[in-house]
Amino acid sequence: MSDQEASQTSGVIKKFLYVNRRAPHGSNYAQEGLEVALIGAAFEQDVAMAYIDDGVFQLKTDQDTSEIGTKNFSPTYRALGDYDVKKIYVERESLEKRGLTQDDLMPLVYEDEDDDWEEKPMINLVTAAELQDIIEQSDVVLNF
Amino acid sequence: MLHTVNKSPFEKNSLQTCLRLSQPGSSILLIEDGIYGALKGSDAAANITEHMQERRFYVLGPDLKARGIDKSRLIDGIEIVDYDGFVKLAVEEPKVQSWM
Question: For a disulfide at B8, which of A38, A107, B33, B69, Cβ 3.0-4.6 Å?
């Protein structure tokens, strides 16, 4: 195998962006998107999450599915930090349209290995203009 | 007549169409992702507030709880019902129309 081929099969890190636009419990999209993102992160890819439109409802605090008989995957979002996902982008316009603020979102954190494992917030509120650049700069965009 | 809406008003126009095509005096029950239509202060809230006078609005409690929406976040005047309440509404009203 040539050096070029080797570099293509191992050690290549791409920027993955998972775009989540669906509310959490009315369909499987939210849970599937989260699971696929965690798989991508386990393969040591550079994973970022974007929550847009009804996708922002996925990050709402206090979700409790005990009375609707489905799995409550809401606590799984806290695992993103453990899988080295450090960037969660939430579109500010989507939140405002739904009467929500950042206080309504789970306070997700990651431990920064470059800063004595200090816990740092993962959620960044971004404008649509900022999100345009984030999407443009990603190598792979996956939609859920 | 009882009308149920199970889609988010931010993603589909089911709630708008329900309100356009339901007669005054109807009962409207928001279930599943439809409960997001009951959020106070959202861009979709006017759909319901504009029809509050001539329709009764209900929202299914277990679906609110699943989505982490506290009752304090609902438009004033919307009544929360449990599954028994859903059945009661369906029995009381002569027909049920599901806007999906």
Answer: B33
